[in-house]
Design goal:
2 helices; 48% helix; single chain; 6% strand; mainly alpha
Length: 63
């Protein structure tokens, strides 16, 4: 899963009235969204030209 897709899924969860997420569920999802956006913004750890993916993240070859 790419970071972009994970962000979209979490945003859907936060705004899904049929799931009725409450309290800490919403706060955890919002924190996850902001953390993933920050990873995208800073382009993760660029260590000597090698990018490190997060666990479960797949490389988006279109980028």
């Amino acid at each position: 899963m790419t970071l972009e897709k994970a962000i979209k899924i979490l945003e859907l969860f936060v705004h899904a009235p049929w799931l009725a997420p409450v309290g800490e569920d919403i706060e955890a999802a919002k924190l996850g969204i902001e953390a993933l956006k920050r990873c995208l913004y800073f382009d993760r750890c660029d260590f000597k030209g090698k990018k490190f993916l997060l666990p479960g993240e797949t490389e988006d070859l279109a980028r």
